């Protein structure tokens, strides 16, 4: 699933076995909850709040000011993309 454009707030709850690519969507703030084994890609400017409950990584771009870990009980990682 691929998204593009701009958003003030982007919320992603990934429970499926598919990749979510929102790297072409610039969001000011985002909440990402990844319960999937697939990856999520986001571009966030101000604040990212995230949880990882499985193997799926979250790829973050956008020089985000604030990164808030809510819960990390999975094997996936937050990967910051320059």
**Alpha carbon gap, first and last residue:** 23 Å
- How can the largest sheet be summarized? 6 strands, parallel
Low-confidence stretches: none
Shape: globular
Number of strands: 6
Total domain modules? 1
How much helical structure, as a percent, in the residues?
Answer: under 10%
Could you characterize what this model shows?
The chain is mainly beta and 82 residues long. The protein has one domain (2-80). 0% of the residues lie in helices and 67% in strands. The chain has no helices and 6 strands. Strands 1, 2, 3, 4, 5 and 6 form a 6-stranded parallel β-sheet that branches. The model has no long low-confidence stretch (mean pLDDT 97).
Defining traits:
82 residues, mainly beta, six-stranded parallel beta sheet, 6 strands
Strand-helix topology:
Elements lengths: L1 E13 L5 E15 L5 E13 L5 E4 L4 E7 L5 E3 L2
Parallel strand pairs: 1-2, 2-3, 3-4, 3-5, 4-6
How would you concisely characterize the structure shown here?
By secondary structure, the chain is mostly beta strands.
